[in-house]
Amino acid sequence: MFIPKRIIFEKDSLKYDMAKEVFDKFKDKDNIEIINMTSNKLKQHIPGNDLFSQYREGKKTLVVGIKKSLKFQSCKPSANFQLPLVSGCMGQCEYCYLNTMLGDKPFVKIHANINDILNQAQKYIDERLPNITIFEGAATSDPIPVEPYTHSLERAITFFGSSANSRFRFVTKYNDINSLLNLKHNGHTEIRFSINTSSVISQYEHATASRDQRIEASMKAAKAGYPIGFLIAPVFIYSNWKEEYHDLLLELKNKLPNDLKFPVTFEIISHRYTTIAKNRILDIFPENKLPMNDEERKFKYGQFGYGKYVYQKENLDEIKQFFIKEIEELFINKEVKYII
């Protein structure tokens, strides 16, 4: 559970039940600062004189606000729309692309007007009938650490569970999912777990659950009848990477129930970075050991108009061939969404 150092309530947010619950939960904690905003100058309440300290103070900050614009962002190719429950994440993953998207002070923000958000989702569902509309709940966030006091996932899972023409999916690096296990999801929500080798997690994914904790949580979700998936990302090439990724996949195979109701899905993304991301990472994590030598990479233009540094073609081919072979040999009821 995310326990912030400070909680900032945006103007009018305390009119909503979720905000009131957050306030009641933390109001008597002496070590948590409660700030009620009367203006829109949010970032002045988050200290820090440089990017290094601003990042860390931002990561300790919870903002309780209202989602005013109810025009949902597209989320292709994995979903039709983002479901804006939460933005930001308490994790401090050195490679994370959100380091370049959420500004100098990357706070966690929850939206208290969950009813408005789900009502808007229903409008999108109705507009696309008879097609099934898919919503992604973690495009710019990890909603699990704040779930104990937002109950946003609980509301969303129950909502989509009763909707014949919609589906919901989200991904997490955390394991606190017990409150979701007995919900009436009707197989309409896919819970995906971002997973990696223990070496990668311990070196780069700070303030997240361990590999084994995530695997244990994924098995709980599978046994509760949820469709589950694994996002193996980012894949790094290092001295014994094949052995460690094989061990990871073997552990998943050995732990998965034999009577899965749905195919387990795999999404595999190799490590890549932009110049902007690299420069910011070097400021935030000056002692990082991420493999970001431009000369060893291939520069590739992305779909959003900016370029990124990816592994060389022969390295990418090796990654693809490795995971295709391993997953095919180890898993029966599975679907590989993509390997990039």
UniProtKB/TrEMBL annotation:
Keyword Acetylation: no
Name listed for the protein in its UniProt record: Spore photoproduct lyase
EC number of the protein: 4.1.99.14
Lineage: Bacteria, Bacillati, Bacillota, Clostridia, Eubacteriales
Keywords: Lyase
Domain of life per record: Bacteria
Molecular function terms from GO: 4 iron, 4 sulfur cluster binding; DNA photolyase activity; S-adenosyl-L-methionine binding
Cellular component terms per the entry's GO annotation: endospore-forming forespore
NCBIfam families: photo_TT_lyase
InterPro entries cross-referenced by the UniProt entry: rSAM, rSAM_sf, SPL, SPL_Clostridia, SPL_firmicutes
Keyword presence, Metal-binding: no
Coiled coil: none
